[in-house]
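Might you be able to consider the sequence and fold that I enclose below?
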Amino acid sequence: MLLVANENNQKQRRQIKAPGTHHPKPKLRRMAQQTEALYEAALKAAFIGGEATLRYFQKDVEIISKADDSPVTIADREAEQKMRAYITETFPDHGIIGEEFGRHNEHSSVQWILDPIDGTIGFIHGIPLYTTLVGITVNNKPVAGVIHAPYMKQTVSGAEGVGAYYNNSLTRIRKCESLSEASLMTSDVQYFQTFGYKNSFEKLLDIVKTHRTWGDAYGHLMVASGRADVMLDPVLNLWDAAALLPVIEQAGGTFTDLSGKPRIDGGNGFSCHPDHHHQLLAFFNEYG
C-alpha cells in the first residue's frame, strides 16, 4: 500500500510544473530517477525484513550472545537474510553492510546498510517499538533511508528529491519554541555515563519538558513524524545511523554526531530541529 501511495504522490509531483521551469539536464534527471528507484527498493527491503521479524515477535526464541555480548535471535538473522536475498537479486552489483552478516561487494559505489532489528533487547522482551532499518549510500553519501516499525505499522522514510514520508503522508519535524518545551527521547540512560556524557545529559534533563526512553531508532521515527523534539544517542553503529540521516534531513531536521558533524559513522548522534542544534551542541561541549 505504501509503495502504491508513494508512486501516486510522485506522479502528482511530476505533473506540477511552474511556468517557465526548464527541464533538468539529462544527467541530473537520471540521477534523480536512480535515487527514486533506490528509495522504492529500500522501502520494499524494509518491509520484507519487518515481515520476517513478526513471525518471532512475542514468541519464545533462542537468545544468542555475540562476541561483544550483545544479544541476537533467529529473527535478526532470518530478517537480514531475506533482505539480502532481495537486494542481491534486484541489484547484483550493489554492496551490502549488515549487522549480522557483515560486508558483501564492499567496493561497490552503492552500499545498502541494514539493521534487521534495531532494539533487539526490547524485541526479546516483547516491546513493540523495535524497528527494521535500511540506509543507502552512493559514493559514501547517504541518499535514502527507511525506519520501519513492523508491529506498530509505522514507517518514516526519505530520500533526496523525494522528501520524507510518515506512512502515506509527507512529514515534517515540528518546532517547539524552546528546549524548555521540548520532549526528549533516549535509549538506555546508563549509556550516557558509560560514554562520558553523564553531566550534559543531566543538565539537559533539567531543562526539557518531557523525557521518555522510547529509544533506539523509534525515537528518531518520533522526531521525523513530528511527535517528539529531540532523540539523543550516545552510541551508534554504522547500521544504526545509516537510515537516520537521510530521513531526518528530508523531514526538515538535523542529524549529526555529538561534535556537530552530519555523518553516519561518528559513533553517536542526535536528531532535532535545526533551530535547537547549536544549543544542544553547547551542552555536550560545555558539560561533557
